[in-house]
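Meet my pick.
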Amino acid sequence: MNMKPRVLIGSPICQKPEILRMFFYSLEKLDSQMASIHYAFVDDNTQALSSKMLRAFTDRFPDRSVIFPGETERQPYICDENTHYWNQDLIRKVAEYKNRIIDYAKRQHFDALFLIDSDLLLQPDTLEVLLNSQKDIVSEIFWTSWQPNALPAPQVWLSDQYTQYEHAPNEQLSAQEKLVRQMAFYSKLRVPGLYEVGGLGACTLIRRSALDAGVDFCPIKNVSFWGEDRHFCIRAAALGFSLYVDTHRPAFHVYRESDYTEAANWMKKVYGAAPVRTVTPSIPIKRASARERPKITLSMIVRNEADKYLIQALSKHREYIDEAVIINDGSTDHTVEICHELLKGIPLYMTHNETSPFLNEVALRKQQWQETIRRNPEWILNMDADEVFEDGFAEGVRELLVRERGDVCCFRLYDMWTDTHYREDSYWRAHEVYRPFLLRYRPDHHYSWKEQPLHCGRFPNNIFELPSFLSRYRVKHLGWSSQEIRHEKYERYKRLDPSGLYGWKEQYESILDPQPRLIAWSE
């Protein structure tokens, strides 16, 4: 008769009671048909209720659980709606706690150790999936917005501290290429599978073979990387173990109190129920009026942007928008997938054109406008897929909209000819004029358009009948910053406007100037 493998679930715990209640509920739902499950915890709690809940959980499994005491001098671990605050002493302490659990697993001859952070919720068959992987070290994936409104990122990486894109030794990559490769890595991890990675943590199954070989969380003296998981992963690789992440059963990370509602909904979907919340939220609940927090709707048209600047643009925009309306104008690449990936967690309304009206820009802009106002927007941010604001806009835009009294906000647009320089000469002076990018929608205003097939404007042509104001923030137009794209646009303008009827023929011809006057961009 085959014996079930003995698996030790281990976790150092310093946790808020509400999150701990969800964590224990999740552990109770973990399928144990494939394994004999035991528990080892380190009680580092600073709240008496959390310690009481921990004892109550282990009391249910007296022969299969152990609690180790934490350090007597307990340094507070601070978490808020922004992030979690770590210092070197906290990292040292957690590493020692995890090593204590590893030592216990080895002494008690467990077949595997499943180390899991106490703010994670697991799908019931997670342990079964990890055991069936037959890997010595494997994590289950989870995704976290490490900063508010940031793109959710996985807890695994490919190299170094937290590098999440492929690169060859000594390979020089632009910021855009790094983003493209990072998004490719993220997209791969969204597909259920088992993937080799360079680093992992927080939700990791470690087989007896790796434990006996000497993996642990001790700091490596000649490595300066921050965080105990880096030292664990480097040591494991040096001992000859490959690291893997499974993506079949993503865990849920309860990173902030504001995640509680989503966590409860996730639990109801996965388990059929969720524990009742009994603690009053510590976050002060204040409903902001529209005047205090203006709603921003991103409006954009995309067409085959996957290998251009869409990733960079949406990564910036998601920091300050409340929703997005995007017209997919017949893309045949991965543009749509990128939009959904980068705007995950933000309401996204996409319209797909099977047949593109691209040769008649005003028809396309009218469609974009109608789909946007259908969402009853407050402020419309109309950006092309190759336009981004300079640093600081994300932090200042809402104050800008609250402070100013107008309805049309205008900015200067800089045509970037490289990653670091913009063009300025007699043909390229767009940055000397303020242009509208943000518009407060007034439903009672009658809007009209410049009826021409090219260069018709992104907004209706009579918006300046409304009061306007200027912003000091600048817009970077990235759509000229590669030789390939410049050639592509040059050919397009020659084809669509050969006589310069809708634009400026001399400017078209200057696109391929081999020695344009460039000026360094500075933030």
About this structure: The chain has two domains: 6-271, 296-520. The first helix runs from residue 17 to 28. The longest strand covers residues 243-253. Confidence is low (pLDDT under 50) at residues 280-291.
